[in-house]
Fold:
Amino acid sequence: MLIYETEKFLVESVDRPHIDRDDGGHIVIKPKVRLSVRQELSSSEAIELMRLTIVVGEAMTKVMNEHGVDIGRINYQDNGNWSVFKLEGPYLHIHLYGRSKSAKIQKYGQAGHFPHRNEKPEFYEKLKPLTQEDVSDIQIEIKNLLKENKFSNSEWGL
Structure:
């Protein structure tokens, strides 16, 4: 489900999350043009991606806490491991994993555990994605944050 879009990037809620909504939730940021690694980003794209990770992480934390999910931290991960053997290869995308202090599956303070979907599909079967209300409120918060001077295009050299 689309959360936010810029000229070059998409921010999406994940339909089949790695982290259950009640454990903190899962969002992905990806370029609209397929890139294999972050080294293929232009300077301005790299800056925009960094800004998006910060803004989306802040919005996710605020909104999910307001929605009763006690996020204490966001983990940001650039993996691509599951597609290294595919013909098209891995593609650049950044995972934002909310880490709830009261998490039941992905315990707070422990490394995330993400078994390969093909090897342990049952691990992911009951994980709930963000709700429509979560997504709507995160969208609003992203727009509010981007209006703040510290996140303006000029402040970031964009």
Q: What stands out?
A: Helices lie at 43-66, 132-147. The domain at 2-151 is CATH 3.30.428.10 (HIT family, subunit A). The first strand starts at residue 2 and ends at 5.
